[in-house]
Write a structure and sequence with these properties.
With about 550 residues, the protein is α/β, with parallel strands linked by helices. It folds into four domains: about 90 residues, Ubiquitin-like (UB roll) (Roll); about 200 residues, 2-Layer Sandwich (Nucleotidyltransferase, domain 5), CATH 3.30.420.480; about 140 residues, 2-Layer Sandwich (Nucleotidyltransferase, domain 5); about 110 residues, no CATH class. Strands 14-13-12-15-17-16 form a six-stranded mixed β-sheet, with helices on both faces. The longest helix has 24 residues. The N and C termini lie far apart (about 55 Å). The relative contact order is 0.12. The model has no long low-confidence stretch (mean pLDDT about 90).
C-alpha cells in the first residue's frame, strides 16, 4: 500500500497515512484529517486544490486521468491526482490566513433594555441558575455576579463569536475565524452534498465545533472568566449552517420540496461546547429552507417589521437572500449566487486576506489604481475588488454589455487601458499586475452571480407590483456586503439605477441581531410571531424567472 506524508510548509510537521493504490491526494488528506482546500468538493471545477510535491521524483507515482501524467512545476490538483507509490505532499498552513482574514464582526443595531433568558438567584450557600422560569441547576457558593453568554454568527465562509456580560450587556471579547467547512465545500449546496457522503456530516460538524472551541478559548483567555459561567449561546446562521452546526442531516434542503429538519425558535443542549454544564444553545426562528436565522437576526437588527415605506434588505453572498418590507409587511426570497463573490471559481480569486485587491477604480484620465489588503504586492482579487474591477471595466467600455471584452479597435477607451489587456489561457484578460488579472471566464462567473441576485430583486418587486423607483431604502447586509460600494453595484447592474443614493451598508446584522436575541429574551417571542407573518416567495417557480435571469446576465 502506498504511503503519503503530508508536510506543513511552515512548520515542517508531517502526518502520514497508508492508502489503497489509485486513491486521490484529496481523499487521502480527508482520511488523515489534513486540510486541503477544495471549495467545489472535489468536482474538478474550482482549481483551488493545487498542492506541491517537494520531491520531483515523487511525480512518477502520480496519474491524472485524461491529462498529462506530470503537472507544471511539481504542482498537482489534489482532487485529480491518483497515487500509486510513496510520496510527500506539502500542504498550506492556514493559521496566518485566520489572523489576517478581513471579517466584519458587527452590524446595524438599536438600543433596547437588557432582559436575558439566563438569570441567577442566591439561595443560602448556593446559586440557582434559571433559564426563563425553569431551574437549570445549582452552583456552590455565590456566583451571581458571573453571568455570561455567547452570540455566534455561523456564516458559510466565516464564524464570528462575541462574549457578553448578561448583567450589563457589555461585550467582553470578540473573535472570528474562517469557517473550516469551506475546505470541504464552498457553497451551501456543495456542503449539503458533502454532508450526504459517508462521514461527511460528522466531519463538517467536528471541524465547526473545533473552531468554536478555539474562539471560546481565546475569548476566555483574554478576559480571564471561567468558561463554566457561560450559560447560553445564540447560533445565528443560514438554514443549512444551523443544520450542520447541530449535526442535523441537511439532505432535505437539497431535494424538492426543500423542507428543513429544524425550524429554530427553541433551545438545544450545549453539551458539545466547553461551557456550563447547564448550558443551552438558542436557535432563532428560520424563515424557509434558504432564508435562515441569519436573516431573522438581520430583520431584528434593522427593525424591518417597523420601518415605514418600502425597504429592500439584501444579503449578498454565496446565497443571496432578499427581504422586501412594505409598511411592516415582509416577504422573503433567495437566489443561488454561487461562490464567485467570495473569490472562488475565479482564476486569481482569493478571500479577503493579506495580498488581495479589495478596491479598484479608473480615474478621469483612465489611469487604474487599486488597494491591497495589508499593503504590499497584489497576489489575488477578493470579492469586493472583483466587483469594483468588473464595474469599472463595464463603465469604461472595456467590457461590453454582453460580458465580452471589447474587440481590439472597437472599445471606446484609451491606450492606458488597452496596454493592460492581454491573454490568459488563450482568452482575453485585464491585467492589474503581470500576475493578477480578471479573465474572460471570470466575467462569466460574475455574470451568473450578478444575474441571480438582480433577477431575485426584480422578481420580488414584480411579485408585489412595486416599481424599483418606489423603493425608499436598500440595506446591504453581511460581512462581504459591507466592503462593497454603491457605484460598482450600479455599474454592474446588480442594483437598478433607481436605487442610486438609497443604499446603506448595514454590516454583519446576523451578529448584531444574534446579540439582541442573547441580551433580550423578549425578542424571541416577538420574532417568532414576525417570522410566521413573512411570506416566503419561491422565485424559481415563477413562470418567467428563467427569462428574467437570462436578461439580467447583461451588464
Amino acid at each position: 500500500m502506498p504511503y503519503i506524508a503530508f508536510i506543513n510548509e511552515s512548520k515542517t510537521v508531517s502526518k502520514g497515512i497508508a492508502i489503497e493504490e489509485g486513491t486521490t491526494i484529496l481523499e487521502a488528506a480527508r482520511t488523515a484529517g489534513v486540510i486541503i482546500e477544495s471549495p467545489c468538493n472535489g468536482m474538478n471545477t474550482c482549481g483551488k486544490c493545487g498542492v506541491r510535491l517537494p520531491n520531483p521524483e515523487d511525480l512518477r507515482f502520480i496519474r491524472v486521468k485524461g491529462e498529462p501524467e506530470l503537472e507544471t512545476g511539481g504542482t498537482v490538483f489534489a482532487c485529480r491526482a491518483r497515487v500509486f507509490g510513496p510520496i510527500e505532499v506539502a500542504v498550506k498552513d492556514y493559521s496566518e490566513e485566520n489572523l489576517t482574514l478581513q471579517i466584519v464582526d458587527r452590524g446595524a443595531s438599536f438600543s433596547y433594555p437588557k432582559a436575558p433568558f439566563i438569570t441567577k438567584k442566591v439561595s443560602g450557600k448556593n446559586t440557582q441558575v434559571y433559564g426563563g422560569p425553569m431551574l437549570l441547576g445549582t452552583e456552590e457558593g455565590d456566583t451571581e455576579a458571573s453571568l455570561y453568554g455567547l452570540a455566534v454568527d455561523i456564516g458559510t465562509t466565516t464564524i464570528v463569536a462575541s462574549l457578553a456580560d448578561l448583567h450589563t450587556g457589555a461585550e467582553l471579547a470578540c473573535g472570528s475565524i474562517l469557517n473550516p467547512q469551506t475546505r470541504y465545500a464552498q457553497d451551501v449546496l456543495s456542503r449539503i452534498h458533502f454532508a450526504g457522503q459517508d462521514g461527511g456530516l460528522a466531519s463538517l460538524y467536528q471541524v465547526f465545533i473545533e473552531s468554536l472551541h478555539t474562539l471560546i478559548a481565546g475569548m476566555v483567555r483574554r478576559t480571564g472568566i471561567n468558561p463554566r459561567h457561560i450559560y447560553e449561546a445564540v447560533y445565528s446562521g443560514n438554514t443549512a449552517m444551523l443544520h450542520l452546526a447541530t449535526e442535523t442531516d441537511p439532505f432535505p434542503l437539497g431535494q424538492y420540496p426543500y423542507t428543513p429538519r429544524i425550524w429554530g425558535g427553541n433551545h438545544i443542549p450545549a453539551a458539545a461546547l466547553e461551557i456550563s454544564e447547564f448550558g443551552l444553545i438558542y436557535l432563532p426562528p428560520i424563515i424557509s429552507a434558504f432564508v435562515g436565522a441569519d436573516i431573522t437576526s438581520g430583520i431584528l437588527a434593522s427593525r424591518l417589521d417597523e420601518v415605514k415605506g418600502i425597504t429592500l434588505f439584501i444579503d449578498v453572498g454565496t446565497n443571496g437572500e432578499i427581504v422586501l418590507a412594505k409598511e411592516g409587511n415582509l416577504a422573503a426570497a433567495s437566489t443561488a449566487a454561487g461562490p464567485a463573490f467570495e473569490g472562488m471559481n475565479i482564476i486569481c480569486g482569493m478571500r479577503a486576506n493579506k495580498g488581495a485587491v479589495e478596491a479598484f477604480c479608473i480615474d478621469a484620465e483612465e489611469k487604474p489604481s487599486f488597494r491591497v489588503i495589508g499593503g504590499g504586492p497584489a497576489i489575488g482579487i477578493c470579492g469586493s475588488g472583483l466587483i469594483d474591477i468588473a464595474g469599472e471595466l463595464v463603465r469604461t467600455g472595456v467590457i461590453e454589455a454582453s460580458g465580452r471584452f471589447a474587440p481590439p479597435g472597437t472599445g471606446n477607451y484609451g491606450e492606458s487601458l488597452k496596454r493592460r489587456i492581454g491573454e490568459k489561457d488563450g482568452k482575453p484578460a485585464f491585467f492589474l499586475t503581470p500576475d493578477v488579472c480578471l479573465a474572460q471566464q471570470d466575467i462569466r462567473q460574475i455574470q451568473l452571480a450578478k444575474g441571480a441576485i438582480r433577477a431575485g430583486i426584480d422578481m420580488l418587486l414584480a411579485h408585489f407590483g412595486i416599481p424599483s423607483q418606489k423603493v425608499d431604502q436598500v440595506e446591504i447586509a453581511g460581512s462581504f456586503g459591507y466592503h462593497l460600494n454603491e457605484k460598482s453595484l450600479l455599474n454592474l447592474g446588480l442594483l437598478p439605477r433607481d436605487f442610486e443614493g438609497k443604499v446603506r451598508f448595514a454590516g454583519n446584522t446576523s451578529m448584531s441581531g444574534g446579540i439582541a436575541f442573547l441580551l433580550n429574551t423578549g425578542f424571541r417571542e416577538k420574532m417568532s410571531r414576525v417570522v410566521k407573518r413573512i411570506e416566503p416567495i419561491e422565485l424559481a417557480k415563477g413562470a418567467d424567472f428563467e427569462e428574467v435571469f437570462i436578461e439580467r446576465l447583461a451588464f
